Amino acid sequence: MSDAVLTRENILKVLDQFLDPELGRSVVNLDQVQDIKIAPGRVTIQLGLTTFCAPLWDELAQEVRDLVRKNLDSAVEVEVKISEFPRAAEKLGQIGLKAKYVVAVGSGKGGVGKSTVAAVLALGLTRAGCKVGLMDADVYGPSIPHLLGTEERPTLYEGKIVPIVVHGMRVMSMGFIVPREEAVIWRGPMLHQAVQQFLRDTDWEDLDYLIVDMPPGTGDVALSLSQLLPVSGAVVVCTPQELALLDAVKAIAMFRKVNIELLGIVENMSYFVCPNCGTRHDIFSSGGAKKKAQELKVPFLGEIPLNMAIRVRGDEGKLVDCFEDPVLQPCLSALCKNLVRQIVEKRRASPPLPSLSIL
Description:
Elements: H1 8-15, E1 33-39, E2 42-49, H2 57-71, E3 77-84, E4 91-92, E5 97-106, H3 114-128, E6 132-136, H4 144-148, E7 155-157, E8 160-162, E9 164-166, E10 169-173, H5 188-200, E11 207-213, H6 220-228, E12 233-238, H7 242-257, E13 262-267, E14 272-273, E15 280-281, H8 288-296, E16 300-303, H9 308-315, H10 328-349
Parallel strand pairs: 2-3, 5-11, 5-12, 6-10, 6-11, 12-13, 13-16
Antiparallel strand pairs: 1-2, 4-5, 7-8, 9-10, 14-15
Subunit structure: Homodimer.
Function: Binds and transfers iron-sulfur (Fe-S) clusters to target apoproteins. Can hydrolyze ATP.
Keywords: ATP-binding, Hydrolase, Iron, Iron-sulfur, Metal-binding, Nucleotide-binding
């Protein structure tokens, strides 16, 4: 095609096909196309996107480039500049939490690295530019404070709990309130009340994602969360061996029973690569979670290797440093991107309905 087709009007018609990753509607209709510059053989598009999809900005820019070349001029050079398009989160459910998406991270049993994966997801999304909160709902065994290396105590301001800010994300845990050596001995109603207070009375501000570290098993917390607010989706963590997969299947069944959509399965401690000889060892078997995900028609989000650096940095409260590790960084970043990719695909396939205010 000739450069004559490269008009602002034609480019806008093409961009009308590009759906906003958060709302699943045309970026043209949402006024997110901020500028278009046309020069001989070159088009520059300034596009506004929310931080909700920040981990995928590079991929989304490529999607726009491909769209313009395919529909207008395959030879044209297309530059896509993405800047933040502010859009506040709406309140979720009766609890009034302002978050665009709530991700519950669970497992059918303990000891599979669920809290580590929850913290990794929260850290990875924050580092990519998302506004993230991390809630430790594992009241009986809160691990998040230790993994993040903080022992601060939350304060109160104007009747709200001020969460601890760690590495740019807002964090709340029973571990900030109860001394490390003391046990929490509560029955179901008290557990429900604690979860409710963490959600309702904490000043989470305006979040893209609230990551909830669930306790292991299929008990009260999942029921409480499903009753208190619309949890958007769940991630199930397991290790590759058959015994762990049996419990992971139960966790998947639990989330489905309370109508929480499955975003995917993560296989933790997937394999071990010897640092001396480079040989791969499948200590707990390998690929079991991916196979089970296919059987249950659940997305597979990725593998995390059995790596000493995760254990050492977790014990030191420096889990965030794993994102600087040349071995771990690619798989951890891919895990976060795969999670957001699943969410964006679902949003685009079934856009959330706009809220209507009743006067």
